[in-house]
Amino acid sequence: MFKYLTFCSFLLSTTAFAETAQQAPPPDAAADAGASSILVTATRLATPVDQVPASVTVLDKAAIDRAQDLGVTELLLRTPGVSISRNGGYGTATSLRIRGAESDQTVVVIDGVKLNDPSSAGGGYNFANLLVGDASRIEVLRGPQSTLWGSQAIGGVVNVVTAMPEQALEGSFDIEAGSRDTVSARAALGGKTGPVSWRIGGQSFTTNGISAISPAFGGKEKDGYTNRSVTGRVEVALADGISADLRGYYSDGRVDFDGTSADSPAYGTNREFVGYAGLNLALLDGRFRNRFGYGYTDTDRDNYDPRNQRKQSFDAAGRNQRLEYQGSFAIADGWTALFGVENENSRFRSVSPSASLSVPIPDPARGKAEITSVYGQLNAQPITGLTLTGGVRYDDHDRYGGHTLFSAGGVWALPTGTVLRASYGEGFKAPTLYQLYSEYGNQALDPERAHGWEAGAEQRFFGEKLRLGATWFDRTTTDQIIYNSCSTSSTDPLCFTPGTTTRRYGYYLNVARAKAHGVEAQAAVEPVKGLTIDGNYSWTVAEDRSEGTANEGNWLPRRPRNSANGAISYAWPFGLTTGAAVRWSGHSYDNAANTTRLDDYTLVDLRAEYALTPALRLFARVENLFDENYMTAYRYGTLGRSLYAGFRGRF
517 to each of 101, 155, 477, 509, 538, how far by Cα in Å? Predict the structure, then answer.
């Protein structure tokens, strides 16, 4: 705390009133990023992409529409360094990994609010229920980002921003249907009236789905999925330089799923709510911007099995309350300070009732945690084209005490079209409430720690019609938490519920040391007007480096070492746009022992879109054109050839 306050005092006292200072950008991850240049807000400050030292991918509304994907997961899978595993079709448990990190080491942010579920095993976010909805921008910031985003941001950050209006009244709608009785409909309406800007959007999605268990392992019944979601944003200008924000997101889903070995009539429900209220205050003619916010997330999950006497088999709830202050100060032309204070309170409840009504429902496992943080970051442009960034964060956890994290980086955009990047970041992730207090909990766990760096270059030719780039990254994680299974004859004291002689199936343990490094390469070219070709390749070596263990040197589960994406699109002069995309994923392993192999696969998609009018378009696509049979999780099925068609309007 002392170092942080000294740092901020130095910045303000030495350069606070420099005559060349400009307006500070809004300190908000959900700020309007509409501009002629690409801006990134996952950095918690609207920053031009050429001034971000870490690797980042920005998908704007045009790119989201062009891809035609229903879920955010499918969009992200086309970006460098990202892999997923899914236990069946739409709606089933979905894990997204950035650069080989654990799925719960990625922070998901929706309209500026960090969304995680304290009742889930890893405390992370299940991407199964995150549909595209009214998203206007999706950003993927790769590498450790804990200086700005705190616990969990070891792998990176996914920032989803919903739309804000640009006109007095505007709206959009998308309706499509296709294979397996899949129907998706989404619509949004918004506008500006005097000091008030507002927008509300909703989406309804349903599908009969596929068998979660692969047909190769006996799966026959279809496991369906439904989801209803709504988003809303309101901004009110209260006075000159003062505004208030209200933001909300709600999702209600139901999915049928199977056990690990056979079809079953079991199903689960998932309800997520995100709420935010904020006050924005601009001082000194916009040089000093302040945001005071309150964020609330609530996730409620339940599983049911109609075959049992007691239908409900699982009940869990996780809640977060977050108070935060964030400020940005334009010290001088090209020099900006970002700083903030946060307090987060997390709670969870979880219980697994017996199938028999004669067995009483046990008391639920409960837990809570509080963490208070302060952070500061300085962005400086000492010379034209060169941006340097340095930051520090101090976290005070009510159980694990204080931890200080550092980050630093630089970007040099040269007149030759060359952009050089390098950054270093540290990560810290406290054990989750589930890992500490659930029926498998271990209260002796230590926090996970990570540090990583990257260096890369991008070259642009012919007025950016040809772009080539590559990045090397390296990350080490220590005290990684894993689930350790117990045999029925084990004498390990931790294989018994603490304080009893009752055996349990397993417990969480700090044993792992993980190492990841690799290369991300990408290219894009526009050889003629209307024709765009782009692609990326990722080589990700993610290994278990726990010395002296049987798995030392093994691949971390469900992480392909090689993957590549390619796409081509052509806009014909008469309003038709056609395209094709291909994804290749190398083989991986389903288990830590590397004895169960998941084979490589190639997926080909075709897309077409026709403009009936400037505001109305027809579209269609074929996914998995050659009906490739593959698995991203052993024994679980994946979608075969699928055809969808629909229309969209923008007015």
Answer: 10, 12, 12, 24, 11
Segment 127-142, tens digit of pLDDT = 999 999 999 999 999 9
Domain edges within the chain: 2-650
What CATH number does the domain located at 2-650 have?
2.40.170.20
Q: Which residue reads 């892999």 in tokens?
A: 83
pLDDT tens-digit profile of 300-352? 999 999 999 999 999 999 999 999 999 999 999 999 999 999 999 999 999 99
pLDDT tens digits, one per residue of 544-569: 998 888 888 999 999 999 999 999 99
3-state per-residue secondary structure call for 246-307 = EEEEEEEEEEECCCCCCCCCCEEEEEEEEEEEEEEEEEHHHCEEEEEEEEEEEEEEEEECCC
Q: Can you give the pLDDT at residue 16? A: 39
CA distance 192 to 199: 9
- Contact between 180 and 211 under an 8 Å Cβ cutoff? The reply is no
**pTM reported for the whole predicted model:** 0.91
Give Cβ neighbours of residue 643 (< 8 Å, ≥ 6 apart): 178, 179, 620, 621, 622, 623
User: Is residue 509 a contact partner of residue 501, using CB atoms and an 8 Å limit?
Assistant: no
Helix H or strand E encompassing 370: strand 365-383
Whether the CB-CB separation of 337 and 329 falls below 8 Å is answered with yes
Quick one: tokens of 104?
A: 């719960």
